[in-house]
Specification:
InterPro entries: DUF1631 (IPR012434)
Protein name: DUF1631 domain-containing protein
Shape: elongated
Number of strands: 7
Strand content: under 5%
Distance between the termini: 53 Å
Radius of gyration: 40 Å
Pfam families: DUF1631
Number of domains: 4
Region (Disordered): 241-261
Organism: Luteimonas yindakuii
Length: 701
């Protein structure tokens, strides 16, 4: 019996083998259309809950009719699919018949417009296993007497064309037909990996594409079937076998050589992580073989779940690849990855081990990170320059962003939830959609930047308001301390007239604070304000010694400055005149009583932070603004904080959460102490991926 319980394909002839395959595929693929109809119906029902777009009622009516007749559409799809396989490999089915120069109908044109993108997406997603199946089918076609290279009757094109012939423009409007095709693509994308694995196994069991050696020695088939190939595929007798996807096409200009030998940094990394290999008596896998295994493994929803609790992703990855190989005929211990492949598996595994172990990731994020190993391993195998690109390859930038969004994210704040959901969706897109199409990473990088930029902008505005408020209080406190210090110095020089003491303690000190805040302590206006106070103290001393004429001249010279001081303090001209008159009256009396003035500080203790010397906490000062730090407290979920601002006055450090709200304000010494205790863990400024690669490059544990 075969894998599906049908007639044993090993003893069946080629016609029977192909008939069993097409009927088996038809039976397994038929449920996709009813599932797509049900999925589209749910989507349209959800749209009705909100403001329905124009035409939604008509679309729902069409979908309702399709739903009621889904069983008949399923049968119709099977009929169209089986019709497309009739006569293979000598004919290409209905799609290949007819006049090649006939006009294209509107129905056919619309079918091409909506069908080709879906066909291309599915072919890219399953490119490796399709290439393997194609080569097995060439062997089957040769046994059936074909003298040309037939198409794959079970490929994505056959599935989509069967859908377009089963659901026509007469069954529903074009909007519903296109929307239903999108759901059909999603359903097919999830199932085709499993179905193509079954198809490949059936062909392997039947002995096709086994030109020489054992089945595992020709993993997934070589091009040809041994004896008879030279006559079937000989020059002039048939088309030459199409080059495989990993080989350059004949007649095309060769692409620039990008070989592992030229990847300087990548080679260094591979040498750093190279492990001892035991490959005696075992053959080395070809590049396309390992890529095919990766494609099959990537299609499994529970791939790499065994990584939970394991110290090495690379070890689990090797075990999973071996299991997939055994399912398609590769016996354990008969084939091993080549040196470059093994080094790359170890390097990618170690990279993801670093990312998983050195970041605070939730279990769901760890699972997604483990599954991301597969597409990134494929990328590293296909592009030896992945780690040598300058600027950094978009894929590594996307990976770094994903880890940053997941790291120490408890999803408590709205912005944390948005970042986590964004990372989840992008990671799933890489897992589901990457099949060698590097443009995907460019699109996902752009998507992440567009989503994160407004969140960062709002957070920066919020944190700016926070540090500006703190800075404002600190500047006011510093200005008041400076004014208190200068007043204290003048009062210490001796007793003063009551009017002079009152002027210095109130109007002059207020002028100092305002000028310090407005113009700064180094400005000429501030120096002039300081000079005014010292001049008034000297006038008082001169008046006490009887220098009447000199005192009068000095008062006349100071009158403009005294009036400006009064105006700055909010006094009008009359009040300023009365103040000046009082000063003149008392200064004109050398024997007027003088006393030591009492002083009430403008800046009481604790008003503003104390100034911290620049070299008090070198560890904290070494942190750059924007540095990310993980806060770890006993019994609490790790949280991501950010160093938003360092005070130039007090040396205080402001730490904010992802929303830009204040979480901590501490001195440099306090921050350094928290880092030393492990309460705050700085994240490397180059980013998680760059830091991990640097550790691997340097051999740092």
């Amino acid at each position: 019996m075969g894998r599906d319980g049908n007639m044993d394909t090993k003893v069946a002839g080629p016609p029977r083998v192909f008939d069993d395959l097409r009927r088996g595929m038809s039976t397994r693929l038929a449920p996709l259309l009813p599932a797509a109809i049900a999925s589209a119906r749910r989507e349209y029902d959800n749209l009705m809950l909100d403001d329905p777009p124009p035409g939604l009622l008509e679309d729902r009516s069409d979908l309702l009719l399709l739903t009621r007749q889904s069983t008949s559409y399923e049968r119709r799809w099977q009929e169209r699919f089986l019709q497309g396989t009739q006569g293979w490999p000598h004919t290409e089915g209905p799609g290949a018949q007819g006049d090649a120069f006939a006009l294209v109908s509107d129905d056919e044109l619309q079918a091409q417009l909506i069908g080709e993108p879906v066909i291309g997406a599915l072919e890219r997603r399953h490119a490796d296993i399709l290439d393997t199946i194609d080569r097995r089918l060439y062997s089957l076609a040769a046994r059936l007497g074909s003298q040309s290279r037939p198409g794959n009757p079970f490929g994505p094109r056959a599935l989509v064309q069967a859908y377009l012939r089963a659901v026509t423009v007469h069954d529903c409007n074009s909007r519903v037909r296109g929307a239903l095709l999108r759901h059909y693509e999603r359903q097919a994308g999830e199932r085709l990996g499993e179905l193509y694995t079954w198809l490949n196994g059936e062909l392997a069991d039947a002995g096709y594409a086994m030109a020489s050696g054992s089945e595992e020695a020709m993993l997934l088939g070589a091009v040809g079937t041994g004896a008879g190939r030279d006559t079937v595929w000989s020059q002039g007798n048939a088309l030459a076998p199409q080059a495989s996807t990993w080989r350059p096409q004949a007649g095309q200009p060769p692409a620039p050589r990008r070989t592992p030998a030229d990847a300087v940094r990548g080679n260094l990394l591979r040498e750093r992580v190279r492990r001892a290999r035991f490959a005696d008596g075992m053959r080395e896998m070809r590049p396309e073989e390992l890529l095919a295994l990766l494609s099959l493994l990537q299609a499994e929803a529970d791939a790499l779940h065994a990584v939970r609790g394991q110290p090495s992703i690379g070890r689990v990855l090797r075990g999973c690849l071996a299991q997939v190989g055994e399912r398609i005929g590769i016996q354990h211990g008969t084939a091993v990855p080549a040196q470059f492949q093994d080094d790359t598996i170890e390097l990618v595994g170690r990279l993801f081990d670093e990312l998983a172990s050195r970041h605070a990731l939730a279990p769901a994020a760890l699972d997604r990170l483990a599954r991301l190993t597969l597409p990134f391993l494929r990328l590293a195998l296909e592009d030896p320059y992945l780690f040598d690109e300058s600027p950094v390859h978009p894929a590594l930038q996307v990976l770094a962003r994903l880890v940053e969004c997941w790291d120490a994210n408890p999803t408590e704040l709205p912005v944390e939830q948005e970042l986590h959901q964004l990372a989840d969706h992008v990671a799933q897109a890489v897992i589901d959609d990457y099949n060698g199409n590097n443009e995907l990473f460019v699109q996902l990088q752009r998507r992440m930047e567009q989503a994160i930029e407004p969140l960062q902008r709002r957070a920066e505005l919020a944190e700016k308001r926070v540090w500006q408020a703190i800075q404002g209080r600190e500047r006011l406190a510093a200005a008041r301390r400076d004014a208190d210090m200068r007043l204290r110095a003048l009062l210490a020089r001796g007793p003063l007239l009551p009017s002079v003491g009152e002027f210095l303690a109130e109007s002059w000190r207020q002028l100092l604070v305002q000028t310090w805040l407005r113009d700064g302590a180094d400005s000429s206006r501030y120096r002039d304000a300081v000079a005014l106070g010292e001049a008034m103290q000297r006038l008082d001393a001169d008046a006490r010694s009887g220098g009447g004429r000199a005192v009068a001249d000095a008062l006349i010279a100071l009158e403009p400055s005294l009036r400006d001081c009064c105006a700055a303090c909010g006094l009008d001209d009359d009040a300023a005149t009365r103040l000046l008159a009082g000063l003149v009256t008392e200064l004109a009396q050398p024997d007027a009583p003088r006393a030591t003035q009492a002083m009430t500080p403008l800046a009481p203790e604790g008003d503003g932070a104390d100034v911290v010397a620049p070299d008090t906490s070198p560890d904290a000062d070494a942190l750059d603004i924007g540095q990310r730090l993980v806060e770890q407290r006993p019994g609490a979920t790790p949280r991501m904080l950010r160093l938003a601002w360092r005070s130039p006055i007090s040396g205080a450090h402001l730490l904010v959460n992802p929303q830009g709200a204040r979480e901590r304000v501490c001195t440099g010494a306090e921050l350094a102490d928290a880092i030393a205790r492990g309460e705050l863990l700085p994240r490397p400024s180059p980013g998680p991926v760059a830091a991990a690669l640097r550790r691997l490059e340097q051999g740092t544990p």
